[in-house]
Design brief:
It contains 6 helices and 3 strands; from the N terminus they run αβαβααβαα. By secondary structure, it is mainly α.
């Protein structure tokens, strides 16, 4: 739905649920936003996806023993690195969560390899829990 309304000239802001396990934003919305001259400002929310973080904390088999569990800062940075995302909202409730969100602003962008790694974790999570 967001992809179909992104080109509406009356739209100033588009708010997307966006995280590594939600491929729809990446596959559908981003190309739609890139194809228009004057796109709306794009806000991302739910980037740390509590279900994803909870399932990662228990080291599910699909994560693999060699893969590090991404931090909240990694997940914020992933969204901040995404072309077309202008603002990442953080629904924080503790000082620790504020610090984590701010940490993502202080670190350099992820390497292409680490970004691909996070995308593959998102794909694995989506496949594991879509059935």
């Amino acid at each position: 739905m967001a992809a179909s309304i992104a080109s509406d000239k009356n739209l100033d802001v588009l708010m997307l649920r966006y995280n590594i396990s939600d491929g729809g934003s990446e596959d559908d919305v981003r190309p739609a936003l890139e194809s228009i001259d004057s796109r709306p400002g794009t806000f991302a929310f739910n980037v740390t996806h509590s279900g994803l973080r909870g399932s990662l904390a228990s080291r599910p088999s699909w994560l693999g023993a060699q893969n590090p569990v991404p931090s909240h800062a990694d997940l914020y940075q992933h969204a901040l690195d995404t072309p077309g995302i202008d603002v990442v909202l953080a629904g924080v409730t503790t000082r620790e969560q504020v610090d984590c969100a701010l940490e993502a602003l202080a670190v350099p962008s992820h390497s292409t390899e680490y970004r691909d790694h996070l995308d593959s974790l998102g794909d694995a999570h989506r496949e594991a829990y879509s059935g």
